[in-house]
Amino acid sequence: MAEDVEKITPFADDARGKTEQVREMFDSIAPDYDLMNRAMTFGIDRLWRRKAVGMLGRVKHDDILDIATGTGDLAIALARRLKPRAVTGIDLSAGMVEIGRRKVDEAGLAGVVTLGIADCLALPFADASFDAVTCAYGVRNFSDLAAGLREMHRVLRPGGMVMILELSTPTGRLVRPLYDFYAGRFIPALGRMVSGSDAAYSYLPASIAAVPQRAAMEALMAEAGFEAAATRQLTFGTCCIYTGRKPSATD
């Protein structure tokens, strides 16, 4: 259930809402975020992004919105491979966006990619503003997942595609025990060693376990108004790409 992941917060004894806690968490780990991503996934996160970007190449993608853009890896990949007119990335964390802007400048993509600070539950864009909406490793952090999906649907143009890349729990009997050890023991220990943050990398496996996955995520997307919701599993089910389409005016 979506309500389960919405109750998972980075700081268990903190009375603030999830949005405020997530913002603080990402601000604190921003300098080490990219390094931790590479280390935790052994670099496979780059392959996952490439696959996700490739799926968008089959649909109209002149104007793309990347939600929970973080340090801009997906936004940059979208701009490089798909050659859109514009990629707009938004994130709660000023620390993450600051690093992302530097990466955009270094990539020579400042004329295409624009990163800013905004709340995914109240996107500062008009209805039907984008051909495609993406979100990588972000929906676990929404304080209201259903509301976030509705906002994605609202800002999409009719016929537009949503693509959500998210970590998931494998279901295979051979892989699951290894994954449980990796997620429950290895990731928190690595997080403490590299970033010094115990909360962030204990929150990560807890939020992965709680987020709606596969058919459950597809059902939430359908409730938000998307049609043809589908799941593509990657790397033994440790990551999933969810796609859906906003019905066109002629549907």
Structure description:
The structure is a single chain. The protein is built from ten helices and seven strands. α3 (33-41) packs antiparallel against α8 (175-194), α4 crosses α5 and α8 (175-194) runs antiparallel to α9. With 251 residues, the chain is of the alpha/beta class. The model has no long low-confidence stretch (mean pLDDT 93). It has helices at residues 2-7, 18-29, 33-41, 44-56, 73-82, 94-106, 145-155, 175-194, 198-210, 215-223; strands spanning 63-67, 86-91, 113-117, 130-136, 156-167, 227-234, 239-245. α7 links the parallel β4 and β5. A seven-stranded mixed sheet has the order 3-2-1-4-5-7-6, with helices on both faces.
State the main characteristics.
46% helix; 20% strand; 251 residues
Shape: globular
Please count the helical segments.
Answer: 10
Count the strands? 7
Provide the structure class: alpha/beta
Main sheet characteristics: 7 strands, mixed
Could you tell me the mean pLDDT? Answer: 93
Low-confidence stretches: none
Q: State the end-to-end CA separation.
A: 30 Å
